[in-house]
Amino acid sequence: MVRYINIKSRERTEFIDITEKIQEALKEAGVSSGVCNIFVPHTTAAVTVNEGADPAVQRDIQAFLNKMVPFDGDYYHREGNSSAHIKTTLVGVSQAVFIDEGRLALGTWQSIFFCEFDGPRHRRVALKIIASDKKT
Ligand code: ZN
Question: Per residue of the chain (136 residues), what is the pLDDT tens digit?
Fold first, then answer.
């Protein structure tokens, strides 16, 4: 089964911490050891793992991406959101995080962020939680 997390973004570009929502899904699934695969089924949104303690880090990453891939440029795509498509490819639409003792095995300062690049929109994130033997 694939589980889904619903997200409502409020800004054109925005990083939303979804760590706790994923943790809740692990609890619901009752998996204590394994892998949590996180997949964003959109072409203008992504997922990344980075620092969750200081919001300035997320701000800096977004500012850098906006500078590197400006909203307006010499793009062919008629929908007018090529910068969002490019950022999505740069950041990526999937992550895999280990599960240990029922918790996401993240580093002390790590959080999982849904990255909106063409908001505001209703979005969703797919989770495939795969259980493994505790010894593997
Ligand atoms: Zn488009």
Answer: 999 999 999 999 999 999 999 999 999 999 999 999 999 999 999 999 999 999 999 999 999 999 999 999 999 999 999 999 999 999 999 999 999 999 999 999 999 999 999 999 999 999 999 999 766 6
Alpha-carbon torsion angle 50, 114, 38, 89, nearest 10: -90
| Domain coordinates in residue numbering, the chain | 2-131
What is the CA(79)–ligand 1 centre distance, in A?
5
Q: Could you tell me the distance, in angstroms and rounded to a whole number, from the CA of residue 11 to the centre of ligand 1?
A: 17
- Token readout for 16 is 């939303």
Output the CA 35–ligand 1 centroid distance in Å. Answer: 32
Which CATH superfamily hosts domain 2-131? YjbQ-like (2.60.120.460)
Distance 77 CA to ligand 1 centre (A): 7
The neighbour count for residue 78, using CB atoms within 10 Å, is 7
> What is the rounded end-to-end Cα distance, in angstroms, of the chain?
22
Phi, psi at residue 87, to the nearest 5°?
Answer: -60, -40
